[in-house]
Amino acid sequence: MDRFRFLAVAKRSMSSLNTASIPKTQKVVLINDVGDYDVLKYENYAVPSISDDEILIKNKFAGVNFIEAYFRKGIYPAQLPYLLGREATGVVVAKGQGVSNFEVGDKVGYLSGATFAQYTKYPAIGKIVKLPSNSSDEKMKLYTAALLQGLTALTFIHDAYEVKKDDYILFYAAAGGVGLIMTQLLKRKGAHTIAVVSNDDKKKLVEEFGAEYVINSSEGDILDKVLQITGGQGVDAVFDSVGKDTFETSLNALKIKGSFVSFGNASGPVTPFPLSKLSAKNIKLLRPQLYGYITEPADWKRYTEELLDLLESGELRILINKTYPLEAYQQAARDLESRKTTGKLVLEIPQ
Predict the structure, then answer these.
(1) Where residue 261 sits, what CATH number does that domain have?
(2) Looking at the domain assignment, is residue 180 inside a domain?
(3) Does 159 map to a domain?
(4) What pLDDT, in 10s, does the model give residues 267-286?
(5) Looking at residue 67, which CATH number applies to its domain?
(6) Does residue 4 sit within a domain?
(7) What's the pLDDT band for 341 if we cut at 50, 70, 90?
(8) Are residues 132 and 52 in the same domain?
């Protein structure tokens, strides 16, 4: 894929190019404390200086993810002040003099912290992909919406638990960003999807995206319905992004030798439990995170190429629910965490 060049370059010891045209301050969203939505601040912050081996990216779009809530609430530790954000697309506006694989003006998509900002510095070697020079704003928004959650879904169904044809797979928050992507990828692999949503509108949406079975969690017991669907056997694997509230249901929904993939804390962290709970059915329990599967350059290249191929071919649909201005992130967070949204939320960065 010569439109998407994956980046690896040796470090050089040189000074940065002239960045006189770059402002000294920028608008960002950050937290100075942990707590409720009121700790989210939209304010001025210094534009970072780059070293010889870094680039400075002027962001155009950033993706909204549930992980920001974990930092805001103190579930995940962070050094304060902490700039939020995990993924973005933008344009290279400055580069260190040791950087040879980027030019000013290159359009890029990347995974990084501190993307809820007008500018982000980034190493020349990193989780970054060069986008086509003719990428429109709408195309860059699509890449933003797909990058983190698409790679999460791809790696989890290959590496956390390798989904096989005819497997029964239970997963939650199926109308969300990861959920809609996982729905499509599981169907593509020939698995039987059992998707959990919270209302009938989301049920209809997930069915439109290809889910075979959809359970509305507000209408009866999830476990009973899973056992009915599987003839009492249970599922081969569970992908659980909810955490505390669904742990027991997920555990009981698994068949003998099933795999429990826990990757979120939407309802709070799982309450500590004795490992002996896994023994009755020889359950495998995993707590993966995306970066563990894309650390090696070959893995990053393989998974990113696969994701971009799926997007370009139209085999993978990405639903962007709403685009908010950066200054309205607090409302985006409220909407996401109140389960009012479907698909992906995106922030548009002021230029």
Answers:
(1) 3.40.50.720
(2) yes
(3) no
(4) 888 999 999 999 999 999 99
(5) 3.90.180.10
(6) no
(7) confident
(8) yes
What pLDDT, on the 0 to 100 scale, is given for residue 21? 78
What does the chain come to in residues?
351
Tokens 């009866």 found at? 220
Q: Is 138 found in the same domain as 39?
A: yes
Give the pair of three-digit tokens for residue 252: 């009981």
What is the distance between the alpha carbons of residues 121 and 72, in angstroms, rounded to a whole number?
22
Listed in order, strand segments (DSSP E) in the chain are 25-31, 40-46, 54-64, 82-83, 87-95, 107-111, 119-123, 128-130, 168-171, 192-197, 213-216, 235-240, 254-262, 284-286, 320-325, 344-348
pLDDT digits (tens, 9 = 90+) for 164-221: 999 999 999 999 999 999 999 999 999 999 999 999 999 999 999 999 999 999 898 9
Q: At 341, give phi and psi (nearest 5°).
A: -110, 165
The total number of structural domains that make up the chain: 2
Domain that holds residue 38: 25-147+311-348
Asked whether residue 134 is assigned to any structural domain, the reply reads yes
Quickly tell me which residue has 């059915």 as its tokens. Answer: 281
| Closest to 146 in 3D by CA, of 339, 303, 325 | 303
State pTM to two decimals. Answer: 0.86
Taking alpha carbons only, the member of 222, 217, 264, 267 closest to residue 241 is: 264
108-148 pLDDT per residue, tens: 999 999 999 999 999 988 899 988 888 999 999 999 999 99
